Amino acid sequence: MDSNKLSSLLDKYYAGESSEAEEAQLKEALKQPSVDESLKEHAQLFAFFEAEKDALQLGADFDAQLKHRLKQESKQQGFQWNFYLRIAATVLLAFTVGLLLYKNPKEVSPEDTYQDPQKAYEETKKALMYLSSKINEGTDQIKKIETFAIAQEKIEKQ
Amino acid sequence: MKKLVITALALFVSVATFAQSEAFTKFYNKYADNDQFTQVTVTSKMFSLFTEIEGETPEDKEVLEAISKLKGLKVLAADSIKDGRKYYKEAFAGINGTGFEELMTVRDGKDDMKFMIKENGGKISELLMLVGGDTKFVFISLYGEIDLKQMSKMSKSLNIGGMQYLQNLDESKNKK
């Protein structure tokens, strides 16, 4: 095949107008080592296509590989589900604890000196009684002064 | 979202109601690590637990009645300290000018004693008691809603003085 015919076939091929017979002819012609220098790059391209076509064939172990991949993928998805489940569990736990604390104001505060209500009560009672008695001591003194003042007034009036 | 807002609001409100005067807290925290002082903190949460305590004796009833409206109690006390009056003066200096009114000052020869109150809408929201002697120092802060009459009534039902009462309490505890 002369190079003129070949290049016109190539043009047709690239334009997508060539018939199957013509394509086969073209491929065969380009495989020849005697191909024209100007068409060498097209020949290389066609050789590449040919090679790739072979490589794209399904291998004998394709099924096994596919199954293996599918298995791995499902494993991975299972792991992801686990991961979300863990987040959900953590959130749920935090929420529950928060709710319990919120709903249970009777929970003892860490600020408290005593964790035992009975002991805390004794101490509170002690402090309040002390305070109360001191208030009364104070007011008693004031009452004494008041009585004295009233008495003094009475004396002055007489 | 709604829950979050409610929780945030509840938190804010609780912080607002628990608020104790800064002057006291500052002093209280200053001596937090000092072994010479006894510190007692009772929070409103603990007070709410007291409702389960049965008021058997009339004095318990009076005490529980007084506690019912309280939000917290803090005590800072020392009974064998050098120059209690120094602490008394320091504490008073810290409180002075922070919105407290002096209710009563008593000097009975041994100890100096001061009562101060903070009023909020006609009600006493905090009561401070300050005692300073040669070796003695007591600083009590009571906050919440304070009824002075109830406070006074409490120990009158016993008809004995404060220190005597404390001794009796110790004895009665030992008997139990």
TrEMBL record, chain A:
UniProt keyword annotation of Membrane present: yes
Transmembrane segments: 83-102
Keyword terms: Membrane, Transmembrane, Transmembrane helix
The organism's place on the tree of life at top rank: Bacteria
The protein, known as: Anti-sigma factor
Organism listed in the record: Shiella aurantiaca
Automatic annotation (TrEMBL), chain B:
InterPro entries: DUF4252
The keyword Signal belongs to this UniProt entry's keyword annotation: yes
UniProt protein name: DUF4252 domain-containing protein
Signal peptide start-end: 1-19
Domain of life: Bacteria
Taxonomic path: Bacteria, Pseudomonadati, Bacteroidota, Cytophagia, Cytophagales
Pfam families: DUF4252
Annotated keywords: Signal
